[in-house]
Write a structure and sequence with these properties.
Structural class: alpha+beta
Strand content: 15-25%
CATH architecture of the largest domain: 3-Layer(aba) Sandwich
Shape: globular
Distance between the termini: 71 Å
CATH class of the largest domain: Alpha Beta
Length: 593
């Protein structure tokens, strides 16, 4: 009975489906296919076409609105990530900050190590490992407080003991640090784990700038004999610092010193005190050969290259290449050897300055920079335009030479007591130096001076500078932010047994006194007053001819966000803001209310 009842229900449902199917087919035939004949009627076609156009228009408006909203709420912006490859001309020798001197070494040192203070992208002194510092009224006791929770890249705590160890090591003559003379007489003491006191023999207003020195770890290097520290594996194989990037490894290629190349991989340090870097990895490629460096960049193996004196012709007009002219807080001068024979004559030096036209030189450099017209830089504390050298006055230059007894003679050159007005100018062999010297030679030739240029290799020139074996020299000096230029112009500094950095061998009692008083006063307004006599006598004595501020060339592929174009104190300072560098871009949602 039950199965018979089920079969009846199934038959009824089947009949219902058949009836509904027939009705659906009839409706389709009647309302769709049966109306196709109406397409022959013009009003009907117009009606259907209008509706189709309306639907297409609505669809387009909807798509346009969605696209507009997408771009309104999203923008293409730099984002974290990516691997940054920088090529540098040179070789790795020692990244330890108390030894690093070459471009490769100092660049790696800046990336791996950190100082108590550092510079921001405006070249202003800011806190780094330190939370701040204070100085006593006498200006001889500086107290620095470290930030809490500092660690080394191996996870060990960084304390005041590491700071004291760094200074003590530099001051140990057995360690042979090139910074030895800069830290003599200064005592560093750890008050507690977070506080260091520096006792200076005399007040020194520029001392805070010395606190940018990279700190080294006592728990790793403290057990090494200072005499063996310079050759320790720490310096080249496994350095550990507290800077933005940590050493990951090194790969060496090339079978001769001429084609040697090194790849040093660095990883972001998550506990870096100024914030974990946004790059996933930083790889430094050191090339001994200039051609190899340029070829690696051209073939897109590198994001950036550094260490070149000029921009390679192949890159000057390349698309996607950015040439950064990072102006240095330095000055390029022609230093006249005032203790020499011919250039000991102050009137002659004045005439040489008057006959020169640095503006012509700057116009030919190929990049924008600032003039250098006195021992201090434009805009620096104590700088005053009234002490600027007077240049580009040929009439006055000739008059001064005539009055000084230098008379035109054979070949248009000047002579005095049978001696021709001739002297050498020694400098390094670079295209920019060739340009500058060639222009100066013409300018001085116009007043009867026979300039004899001598171009030397970097190695030979270094020895020439050290021994002061020149009549004059074209050289750049690093001045920095602070106006303390004692080492370049005080009479005690041209003796090679001191720094030997007084390249003019300038000796003036008024200048010496003013330089000493200017650097030992902490009040900025008082320092301006104290430096004025030095600037006045320097302008009168003309121990050098000021030219312009040089640049550091940094070439990048595309945009490096966070780098910018700004003044820096030295080449490694291009990394002042490296923890914020970004090279990738992506769509970022703008969360607007």
């Amino acid at each position: 009975m039950i199965s018979q009842h089920v079969r009846k229900i199934c038959r009824r449902r089947k009949q219902t489906v058949v009836i509904l199917t027939k009705k659906a087919g009839f409706s389709i035939e009647k309302h769709i296919f049966g109306r196709f004949d109406r397409f022959r009627l013009k009003p009907f076609r117009r009606f259907v076409g209008s509706w189709l156009i309306l639907m297409l228009l609505l669809s387009f408006i909807t798509l346009w609105q969605m696209t507009s909203l997408f771009t309104y709420y999203q923008s293409i912006e730099p984002v974290p990530g990516g691997i940054y490859n920088e090529g540098i001309l040179g070789t790795l020798t020692n990244v330890n900050p108390i030894y690093a001197t070459s471009l490769v070494d100092t660049s790696l040192s800046q990336l791996i190590f950190a100082g108590l203070l550092s510079y921001n992208n405006n070249n202003q002194l800011v806190n780094c490992l330190a939370s701040g510092y204070s100085v006593d009224p006498a200006g001889t006791l500086y107290t620095v407080v470290l930030k809490p929770g500092l660690t080394w890249q191996d996870g060990q705590p960084l304390t005041a003991a590491d700071v004291v160890f760094t200074i003590d090591t530099i001051q140990n003559p057995a360690a042979q640090s090139p910074l030895y003379s800069s830290w003599q007489g200064i005592t560093a003491t750890a008050v507690n784990s977070l506080t260091v006191r520096f006792k200076l023999p005399n007040p020194l207003a520029s001392f805070p700038y010395e606190l940018t020195l990279g700190i080294i770890p006592k728990h790793i290097l403290g057990g090494i004999n200072p005499a063996n520290l310079r050759s320790a594996n720490f310096n080249t194989l496994n350095p550990i610092g507290a800077g933005p990037f940590a050493w990951n490894g090194i790969e060496v290629s090339g079978n001769t010193p001429q084609n040697a190349a090194e790849q040093i991989a660095l990883l972001p340090f998550g506990n870096y005190v100024l914030g974990k870097p946004k790059l996933n990895e930083f790889i430094v490629h050191a090339y001994a050969d200039r051609h190899q460096l340029i070829q690696a960049f051209v073939s897109a193996q590198l994001n950036a290259l550094a260490g070149l004196n000029t921009v390679p012709p192949a890159l000057k007009h390349s698309q996607g290449i950015t040439i950064h002219s990072l102006i240095l807080t330095a000055g390029n001068y022609v230093f006249f050897k005032t203790q020499g024979d011919i250039l000991s004559d102050a009137n002659l030096r004045r005439a040489l300055v008057l006959a020169a036209n640095p503006k012509t030189i700057m116009a030919r450099l190929g990049y924008q920079t600032y003039p250098v017209t006195e021992p201090l830089l434009v805009g620096q504390l104590a700088y005053s335009s009234k002490y600027a050298q007077v240049t580009n006055d040929l009439t006055l230059a000739k008059s001064v030479l005539n009055q000084d007894g230098w008379i035109r003679g054979r070949g248009g050159y000047r002579y005095k007591n049978g001696q021709q007005l001739s002297f050498n100018l020694v400098t390094t062999t670079t295209p920019e130096n060739y340009l500058v010297v060639s222009i100066l030679k013409k300018q001085w030739r116009a007043v009867g001076v026979n300039l004899q240029p001598i171009f030397e290799s970097a190695e030979t020139y270094s020895a020439t500078l050290q021994s002061h074996s020149y009549d004059s020299t074209l050289e750049g000096i690093s001045i920095g932010v602070d106006p303390d230029v004692f080492v370049y112009w005080d009479s005690s500094q041209y003796d090679p047994r001191s720094t030997g950095l007084n390249l003019s061998e300038y000796n003036n009692a008024t200048a010496d006194s003013a330089l000493d008083q200017g650097r030992t006063r902490l009040n900025p307004a008082l320092r301006v007053i104290k430096y004025a006599p030095f600037l006045a006598v320097w302008q009168q004595d003309n121990p050098a001819l000021g030219l312009y501020q040089p640049r550091f060339i940094y070439i990048t592929r595309g945009t490096v966000y966070g780098l910018g174009n700004h003044e820096i104190n030295s080449a490694p300072n291009r990394f002042n803001n490296v923890q914020n560098w970004e090279i990738l871009r992506a769509g970022v949602t703008d969360k607007r209310p």
